[in-house]
Amino acid sequence: MQSSIDLTRLPRSVRLGRDADGRAELTYLDERLLPGEECFCSTGSWRCVVDAIKTLAVRGAPAIGAAGAAAVALWAVNEGARGAVSHGCAEAGESFLAELRPVAAEISAARPTAVNLTWATARMESFAKRLVAEGAAPGEVADSLFDEVLRIEREDEKVNRAIGAAGAALIPEHARILTHCNAGSLATVFFGTALGVVYAAAEQGKVERVFADETRPVGQGARLTSWELSRAGVPVTVICDNMAASLMGKEMIDFVVVGADRIAANGDVANKIGTYGVAVLAHHHSIPFYVAAPASTFDVSLPDGSAIPIEERDPSEVLPQPIDGVDVYNPAFDVTPAELISGIITEFGVFPPQDAAREVAARVG
Ligand code: MRU
Known about the structure:
This protein is of the alpha/beta class.
């Protein structure tokens, strides 16, 4: 099959930079407006970034990780380092860290399920601590935190391309691939995890078509996955969530790949609500079901998926018009047990789910 994939047509979801006055600013694509409007917002306020994460303007585990790290840098450059000027030299570093702590905690708590957010804020905080211990002044720490975000952004694309290369090897010729939610370029800084696998396989001419689950209630599949795949030149068909079984029964799906928000030590995977159902269906129909995720999505502190915190979102996402006497339950994620997963595709290769956390930890060091 001839490949006509054009990834240059995909936007970057987040990018940290500086404005004309040298203040740090984060530019992000407001994904709430897609597919209708491609609107980029810039802000120098870490609180605005927290808001963008909570309201799903920026969403997807790796993207909110990068945005969370950027929020820390916005605070450090635009507020923390400026405030610290009034302190004496010796206490300046310690007081900078003391002020950073609650800011990082608030950023980290913006959404509970994707561990990438905690991973990113913890990385920023421990980097700042190390620099202060080495005697750096708050201004230097802030500039280094800014540079650390640029490193996180670069690493994100590199890691996603490695995931893509590892996953593409699993994709058969003429593949009809099902995915759920959006684990694409829009959910990362660039390229995507599950869709990174699709892009890499499509570049090799192996993808006949992607079926994108609509992904109720927010519609990440219908609005975002379809938008970015068609932009990049990958044939895509949107289906309602309740159609996947029928397509599998008619042998219209060869392969399933999804992303992840948190992976426990035993290989249980939290991802967008509905993923568990797709895994059960794939198992029933003997269709390979793979999860694609970077090392930053593993949480070895949790023995299994039952301990993963599941975000509950506003009832209006499910029922825009409330009905008197009717309750709504709106968990944003579910947990797919490891035994339903054929393998976890990481930047270090593909592993059986039960071994993945150990194998990844050994390589991260
Ligand atoms: O609520 P969202 O849109 O942030 O949920 C996103 C997902 O569930 C993705 O599948 C997951 O974060 C992986 S993104 C590479």
